[in-house]
Each structure stands twice: as structure tokens, then as C-alpha cells.
Amino acid sequence: MFLQTVWYIFLAVVFGPILVSSEGIDSYENYYNEIHVDDEQAEAKTRNALQSPLQRWPGNKIYYRVSGDYSDQEVTNVRAAMTSFGEQTCVQFEEIEGSPPAGKRYVFFKKSPNMCGTRVGYQPLSFGPHEVVLNERCLTMPAVIQHETLHLLGLFHEQSRPDRDEYVKIDYDNIPRKYWSQFMAMDQTTTFNVPYDYESVMHYAKNAFAKDPSKPTIRALINGEEVEREMGQVRGPSEGDWTKIRLMYKC
User: I need a surface site. Which of 15, 108, 141, 175 has the fewest CB within 10 A?
Assistant: First the structure.
């Protein structure tokens, strides 16, 4: 049953100016756009890193294709994002035009009019390509492409790691009930003993999903005291993000 569960992380269209560094990746998240899942699945997708080796991509080379309706600049942005993984980890993404080698699944970057997202981790019981859907807005932001790639490699959000209560305090009173599952700490995954990372591209911003955006939904815990500070970013993977991938894929 565990291997048959499919988690999706989707990002919604946000109209207006390009996302700036003071905002987090959660600015794009919209769970109304998800595949319909029950509560157990919704909670499961917030875990930090998949433990099962069967849900990590086999080998260290992953093939990918880019949709023919991407612009030249969008293709360039995807390629740059994929290249960064080869530069920072031992996971190599190789672009293909036709079919991948026999027995190999591949990642397909697909154009979407209104959402961005992907399934989390390798899906051993699925057939066909592993799709990453991206709209035009997401395709302008390398950090969003990298964020989705970290998801497909097996990472969830930083603030849901099992030890997070030692590092952050969640203000559920300022979060709509329908989003509570996105803030649950999960104890069925691993952190690979990587220190908690407020700067992770997988971390929500301090006011993520806030009813009142002027008040944080997440506060840092420094020596046991609640402290308001910036969290998350859209510049790209942090050293902690890269380290988790290196450990997951035995680099």
C-alpha cells in the first residue's frame, strides 16, 4: 500500500510581479489544484525525505525530455536547472529526444496553462514518464524548477521534518484548517542527520498560508525562545538541500 500511494505537490498560478526573494516557494502552492486525495495521503506528502530506497530513482543517471511547446528561453532554464544537479551532486540528468534506453523511465517537462507540480519520489509501480508540469510563470524561475526537481528526487518540505518542533513553532490559529496538513511534523521519514535549514528552498516562508499575513505562521525557536525571522527563499537549493540529495543517492 505504501508504494502505491502517489503524492503530488502542485503550484498554482499567481498573477502579478515576478516573485521576489522575500517570498517563499509557498507563495505558489495551492492544494485546490491537486489530484483528489484522502486525508492520509494529504498528510503523507508533507514528509521531509522518503526513507524507502524503492522510491529513489535507480542509479545516478536520470533521463529527461522537454515538451516541444516550450520557448527557447524556457528550454534553456530547464537545462540550466538540470545541469545544476550534476554540478552539485552525483545525480546526472541527461536530455533525450526520443525514447530512453530500454527499461529506463524518464522525466517529462510538460507545459501547463495554470499549474506547476510533480509527484514526489520515484514511482516504481507507475508506467510512462514522470511528469513535471510547469506554467509560463514557473518556467521563468530556475528555483521553482529546482524545487520541483528536489520533489521528484524524494524531498518534501523542510518544516515538516520529524525534528522540526525543536526549531520552529507553528501558529495554527493563523492558518486555515484546510492547510494544517501542510505543517504537520512527520516521524516516518529521515533527515539524513542534516541540520535544520531555515534557508532551504523547500522551506515555507514565515507567513505561509497566513489568515493575517502581517503575523507569522512559523516562528524560529532559538534557545527555546520564539523568534521572528525570514525563512525559505527562491534563489535556489541551499547547501543543506544539496547535501540531502548527495546522501540519498550515495554520492
Answer: 15
